[in-house]
Amino acid sequence: MKVIVPVTHLHIYKGLRGQPGECPLAYALKDAGFVNAGVGLNSIRSWPDGDVFLCELPWPAQMFIMLFDSGSEVRPFMMVLDIPNYLVPDSLKPILVENYPVRQEAVCE
Questions:
Q1: Please, what is the end-to-end C-alpha distance for the chain in angstroms?
Q2: Domains of the chain by residue range
Q3: pLDDT (tens digit per residue) in 18-68
Q4: Which of 30, 40, 46, 75 has the most CB atoms within 10 Å of its CB?
């Protein structure tokens, strides 16, 4: 199931470079309902309700991480993820891609 996860200014402000569980994308996932989330350069690891899943990061999110970790300026964007239906938190179900088509924006100026 494709879902939209917004990455906000607050997530960017709170995020720590080089920290998979404390980067802006991890904070965005946690705010979206994934209690434990860690983000690598090209994947997400999450443990909602004890279930573990691995999700490939879309290219704009990978670019965001590379830019953020290198100290470059980044901006908020909408991350679209393909997550198994049974793992999508109820908080994300109202913002499914089918309900709100979104084009992922580039994350660099």
A1: 30
A2: 2-95
A3: 998 899 999 998 888 877 788 877 777 665 555 566 677 888 899 999 999
A4: 46
45-61 residues labelled b (16+ CB within 10 A) or e (exposed) = bbebeeeeeebebeebb
Q: Which residue has the tokens 């690598």?
A: 40
Give residue for tokens 């994350």: 107
41, 56 Cβ separation under 8 angstroms: no
d(CA 76, CA 7): 5
Residue whose pair of structure tokens reads 């279930």 in the numeric block: 51
101 alpha-carbon distance from chain centroid: 17
